[in-house]
Automatic annotation (TrEMBL):
The keyword Methyltransferase does not apply. Residues 1-47 form the Carnitine O-palmitoyltransferase N-terminal domain. This is Palmitoyl thioesterase CPT1C. GO terms for biological process: carnitine metabolic process; fatty acid beta-oxidation. Palmitoyl thioesterase specifically expressed in the endoplasmic reticulum of neurons. Modulates the trafficking of the glutamate receptor, AMPAR, to plasma membrane through depalmitoylation of GRIA1. Also regulates AMPR trafficking through the regulation of SACM1L phosphatidylinositol-3-phosphatase activity by interaction in a malonyl-CoA dependent manner. Binds malonyl-CoA and couples malonyl-CoA to ceramide levels, necessary for proper spine maturation and contributing to systemic energy homeostasis and appetite control.
Length: 804
């Protein structure tokens, strides 16, 4: 999501005061350290890896094999063909009375070796099977005989009841694409946005790069791909995120919204109690690896490595680079309310506090009349400051308020009890949604601890939201957790008739601990004031716009036999062209979790085919059938790019890794420098609903998360995310900078609505949507408010905690 901003900003992060900082470590040393980090991670997870590493076998299968060998030996059969006798000869001679024991040990050793060989064979076979991507490249709805055979074999070798990390050892490594193919695809992607002269110059630079430097840089990448778990992901985390010196707020964080039309309870403390209890239940399942791995088509596993750092994680600022600090466990949350910080324990006698007990603790904080200490109220603005500034101040803060800082950074996550309401309102639905998005993305600049892996925000009217730091994982991971949280706190935990959490308070619980910040240093005071001014400027400059498009959704697109994501992406090209009058590089995030420790790849959605369709739509002489034919071609091209990105054959991560190697080798490449100086004026992302089984869409259609959004990647660009809510609604989240005279989030939102209707009208089944949409904008507002009329009834329904 927000990664596009970091992707275009990583090169400036390698500079200091305008002077390029050379990477002094030899590239071979860096590759060695990269592999060493991979092996350390594997060793730190040894026990869990043992339990999941033998999958699809199980420890009981060893006992079965050992028993079978013992039975055969008792029947005077030798399944080892003499190997057990040789093993017995190698064992120490403990005398005749231990002859039987030597036989049992020999059988156990032989069973272990045979069991290990079988497991290794299963892993190799499964890894080879999972390296096949022909299924991904086939047309939608069609399945070839090789793919059917592949599916059958995967089903045979995959085993049953996998744990979260069961497939990690069997996942293939991300391949290094051919550098010639990458350069060719890159030139193809920039052709629509460059003039003939600029394109010819870029092509010359590309050919010079292929002739002089590409083979050497590619050799180092191939070496790293053989040694490290992933040839690009650790460098991506290092240089795109951790070395960035920009503020995290708006630039790196993203937000997730609550239910759009439903607030299960208006009581702030009750909603906090249920939500936090649900989050901790998710953490418990995560620690026990009871969360099943994500499977495409119910069969192809995705990498689960990013789940490890959801909780107990903080990004610690450094002068030149940050680092991610992750604790094995934490039994408290840090809470912010009206400028004060509190420590709230989450466990009692090694058991998780009940939702009602947690509600009691949060109500105590809400009722606490004590004022904030001087400069404490705005202290968290430092986490929204440039990272070098925050790193320097944190050094002083660590000496003067070490205990309080340790509580915040060591918390399971951060909680902000907001004093203001948020969410969709009947009086002004458009403005209220925009304000809700802005409050989640930036807040007031000093009421979120942006370093934490995520901040849970609970508004005064019971509305929820998340603000998520991006470096530790990508949006599908936090989205998976958020879906579980919303479904659990609403449908499983539920609320009583008066809106409180179910159960009874615990009067024996101690009061929440108020954190004391000793801040006598005038330099810290000055830094907090400067950070607050900078955060407010950054916050006030963000233009957020959220709107639910309810005329059609995934069901209509499915009836058109098209990919829903590709449909939206091509419509976005039409909308952006109408908004700006030109085409631009477009960033769409695609996951590469088909591979071990894969993260994301870029889909360059502005293709020649999409541009041809847009020009045809703006040409009054073109007929609808002609435009429709061009639209289908553009959709097919986008699908091909998306599948190539997911299968490790994208453009941008390969070029990024080549650039990093060139920096380690001190090689100047004009081509790679130009590639990483490009600006992404349109950054897009789809937020998938991954766990539909948690929500009963038919009986409770309003109980679906409304997705989230992120800041723009360019000063004169847009950030656009979208989520399909059920079958008949799409919610869009748009952001831009108010300081830009070229962008307007509301204007682009109107263009998106028009573009969707114009594209739908190309299909016979969608021609009535325009007639349905005709009328004034006031009528459209009333139509949206019509959905709000369901909110009261839905809220009452939620109190009964329906089971789904």
């Amino acid at each position: 999501m927000a990664e596009a901003h970091q992707a275009v900003g990583f090169r400036p992060s390698l500079t200091s005061d305008g002077v390029e900082v050379e990477l002094s470590a030899p590239v071979l040393q860096e590759i060695y350290l990269s592999g060493l980090r991979s092996w350390k991670r594997h060793l730190s997870r040894f026990w869990n890896d043992f339990l999941t590493g033998v999958f699809p076998a199980s420890p009981l299968s060893w006992l079965f094999l050992f028993s079978a060998i013992q039975l055969a030996w008792f029947l005077q059969l030798d399944p080892s063909l003499g190997l057990m006798e040789k093993i017995k000869e190698l064992l120490p001679d403990w005398g005749g009375q231990h002859h039987r024991l030597r036989g049992i040990l020999a059988a156990a050793l032989f069973a272990s070796c045979l069991w290990g060989a079988l497991i290794f064979t299963l892993h190799v076979a499964l890894r080879l099977l999972l390296s096949y991507h022909g299924w991904l490249l086939e047309p939608h709805g069609a399945m070839s005989s090789p793919t059917k055979t592949w599916l059958a074999l995967v089903r045979i070798f995959s085993g049953r009841h996998p744990m979260l990390f069961s497939y990690q050892r069997s996942l293939p490594r991300q391949p290094v694409p051919s550098v010639q193919d990458t350069v060719r695809k890159y030139l193809e992607s920039v052709r629509p946005v460059l003039s003939d002269e600029d394109f010819d110059w870029t092509a010359v630079l590309a050919q010079e790069f292929l002739r002089l430097q590409a083979s050497l840089l590619q050799w180092y990448l191939r070496l790293k791909s053989w040694w490290a778990s992933n040839y690009v992901s650790d460098w991506w985390e290092e240089f795109v995120y951790l070395r960035s010196r920009n503020p995290l707020m708006v630039n790196s964080n993203y937000y997730m919204m609550d239910f759009l039309y439903v607030t299960p309870t208006p009581l702030q403390a009750a909603r906090a109690g249920n939500a936090i209890h649900a989050l901790l239940l998710y953490r418990h399942r995560l620690n026990r690896q009871e969360i099943p791995p994500t499977l495409l088509m119910g069969m192809r596993p995705l990498c689960s490595a990013q789940y490890e750092k959801i909780f107990n994680t903080t990004r610690i600022p450094g002068v030149q680079r940050d680092y991610i600090h992750h604790l094995h466990d934490s039994q408290h949350v840090a809470v912010f309310h009206r400028g004060r910080f509190f420590r709230v324990g989450t466990h009692s006698r090694n058991s998780l506090l009940s939702p009602r007990a947690l509600e009691q603790q949060f109500q105590r904080i809400l009722d606490d009349p004590s004022p904030a200490c001087p400069y404490e109220e705005h202290l968290a603005a430092l986490t929204a400051a440039p990272r070098d500034t925050w790193a320097q101040v944190r050094t002083s803060l660590k000496t003067q308020a070490a205990e309080a800082l340790e509580v915040v950074e060591g918390a399971a996550f951060f909680v902000s009890l907001d004093a203001e309401p948020a969410g969709l309102t009947r009086e002004d639905p458009a403005a209220s949604l925009d304000a809700y998005a802005h409050a989640l993305l930036a807040g007031r600049g000093h009421d979120r601890w942006f370093d934490k892996s995520f901040t849970l925000i609970v508004f005064s009217n019971g509305k929820l939201g998340l603000s998520v730091e991006h470096s530790w994982a990508d949006c599908p991971i936090s989205g998976h957790m958020w879906e579980f949280t919303l479904a659990t706190e609403c449908f499983q935990l539920g609320y009583s008739a008066d809106g409180h959490c179910k159960g009874h308070p615990d009067p024996t619980l101690p009061q929440p601990q108020r954190l004391q910040w000793d801040l006598p240093d005038q330099q810290i005071h000055s830094s907090i004031s400067v950070a607050l001014r900078g955060a407010k400027i950054l916050s006030e400059n963000v233009d957020c716009h959220v709107f639910p498009f309810s005329l059609f959704g995934k069901s209509f697109i499915r009836r058109c036999h098209l990919s829903s994501d590709s449909f939206i992406q091509i419509a976005l090209q039409l909308a952006h062209f109408r908004d700006r009058g030109q085409f631009c590089l477009t960033y769409e995030s695609a996951m590469t979790r088909l591979f071990l420790e894969g993260r994301t790849e870029t889909v360059r959605s502005c293709t020649r085919e999409a541009c041809s369709f847009v020009r045809a739509m703006e040409d009054k002489e073109k007929t609808d059938p002609q435009c429709l034919a061009l639209f289908r071609v553009a959709v097919d091209k986008h699908q091909a790019l998306l599948k190539a990105a997911m299968s490790g054959q994208g453009v941008d991560r390969h070029l990024f890794a080549l650039y990093i190697v060139s920096r380690f080798l001190h090689l100047q490449s004009p081509f790679l420098t130009q590639v990483h100086s490009e600006q992404w004026q349109l950054s897009t992302s789809q937020i998938p609903v991954q766990q539909m089984h948690l929500f009963d869409i038919h009986n409770y259609p309003d109980y679906v998360s409304s997705g989230g959004g992120f800041g723009p990647a360019d000063e004169h660009g847009y950030g656009v995310s979208y989520i399909f809510m059920g079958d008949d609604m799409i919610t869009f989240h748009i952001s831009s900078k108010k300081s830009s005279t070229k962008t307007d989030s509301h204007r682009l939102g109107q263009h998106i609505e028009d573009a969707l209707l114009d594209v739908a009208s190309l299909f016979q089944a969608g021609q009535h949507f325009k007639r349905q949409f005709r009328g004034s904008r006031e009528e459209d507002s009333r139509r949206r408010c019509g959905f709000l009329s369901r909110q009261t009834g839905a809220s009452k329904t939620s109190m009964t905690s329906p089971e789904i």
